[in-house]
């Protein structure tokens, strides 16, 4: 049940719901067997969902590394430095 809620006991990150659904479909499709058309369709759909989950994880990581982290760095470091220099300049103008 912890997998469904997105909680995990290990140190790994929580799995995408799409990936979890893909794993369940793969497992149950294999239990139905390759003789069953429905089982084969479940295995193929489960594999597709698993691949989709991997692509989504890669996209999330790429966006975080190439956009969100630099934006956060700009906000935390560069803008504070700019404000510091503005206050310094304002103090000089008053003198």
Automatic annotation (TrEMBL):
Gene3D superfamilies: Arfaptin homology (AH) domain/BAR domain. PROSITE patterns: BAR (PS51021). Residues 1-95 form the BAR domain. Transmembrane segments: none annotated. Pfam families: BAR. GO terms for cellular component: cytoplasm. This is BAR domain-containing protein. It comes from Patiria miniata.
């Amino acid at each position: 049940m912890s997998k469904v809620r997105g909680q995990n006991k290990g140190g790994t990150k929580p799995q995408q719901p799409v990936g979890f659904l893909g794993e369940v479909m793969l497992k149950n499709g294999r239990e139905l067997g390759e003789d069953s058309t429905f089982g084969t369709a479940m295995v193929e759909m489960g594999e597709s969902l698993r691949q989709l989950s991997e692509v989504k994880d890669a996209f999330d990581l790429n966006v975080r590394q190439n956009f969100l982290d630099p934006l956060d760095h700009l906000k935390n470091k560069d803008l504070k430095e700019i404000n510091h220099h503005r206050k310094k300049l304002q103090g000089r103008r008053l003198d």
